[in-house]
Automatic annotation (TrEMBL):
GO molecular function, one term: transcription cis-regulatory region binding
Domain OmpR/PhoB-type: from-to ranges: 123-221
A single Gene Ontology CC term: protein-DNA complex
InterPro entries listed in its UniProt record: CheY-like_superfamily, OmpR/PhoB-type_DNA-bd, Sig_transdc_resp-reg_C-effctor, Sig_transdc_resp-reg_receiver, WalR-like, WH-like_DNA-bd_sf
The Response regulatory domain, residue ranges: 3-116
Name of the protein: Stage 0 sporulation protein A homolog
């Protein structure tokens, strides 16, 4: 059963949406607290998020940006904002569909079904800027080509992608590669990061591994300074 997260602050609208989706055969998670929505969604890992833009605190635009920066599930925006500029902005941030309220039940369910079908088979794919990583085989798809990464490099890239633009600690990287943080020589981590950096450059990827002093590393676009390990 596909799981859908509903992010809507108006209780009656949220309950109506949840009931409609449950009757259509979906499992539904309702977001009722609007602090750290992106974190809640990441923990739920739904097959689809239905997202309102007019939320208390952080806007739906910011939530959409955060979701798309670190997760691979699709986002369907359902909002009362019917301006073209809002729709274009949401799509630029990575939204997969944009519907305005009020919306007919049949139309909403059809769009939900279409988005889910488009994402079938992509559960194992993590999306980065201009490339995809298959987390099962560690295959990178970039520039209409594909390459299988060595296991350690694949684990490192998977860890960076799962954290979006956030800094990843050295401990987290060691845990991802070796399953432990004990008895790991930091030079071993440096060697693997250097190899990944060379592999990414050889594939023509623009992202760089950026050291963050005293904290760890993060994946960023190549226009940033201090790109050397």
């Amino acid at each position: 059963m596909k799981k859908i997260a509903v992010v809507e602050d108006e209780p009656l609208m949220r309950e109506e949406l949840a009931l409609m989706l449950r009757k259509a055969g979906y499992e539904v998670e309702e977001i009722r607290e609007f602090d750290r929505v992106a974190d809640q969604l990441e923990m739920l890992s739904p097959d689809l998020a239905v997202l309102d833009l007019n939320l208390p605190g952080v806007s739906g635009f910011q939530i959409c940006r955060e979701i798309k920066g670190r997760s691979s599930f699709p986002v369907l925006v359902l909002t009362s904002r019917d301006q073209m500029k809002d729709e274009l902005h949401a799509l630029e941030l990575g939204a997969d569909e944009y519907l305005t309220k009020p919306c007919r039940r049949e139309r909403l369910l059809a769009r939900v079904s279409n988005v889910l079908k488009r994402y079938e088979g992509r559960q194992n794919l993590l999306e980065g800027p201009g490339f995809l990583l298959d987390r099962q085989t560690y295959t990178v798809y970039v520039h209409n080509h594909s390459a299988v990464l060595p296991k350690n490099q694949g684990k490192l890239l998977e860890t960076f992608l799962s954290q979006g633009d956030r800094t990843v600690t050295k401990e987290a990287l060691c845990l991802a590669v070796w399953g432990t943080t004990e008895f790991i020589d930091e030079n071993a981590l440096q060697v693997n990061l250097t190899r990944l950096k060379k592999t990414m450059a050889g594939l023509g990827m623009t992202q760089k591994i950026i050291p963050v002093r005293g904290m760890g590393y993060r994946l960023a676009e190549g226009t940033e300074e201090n790109q050397k390990l």
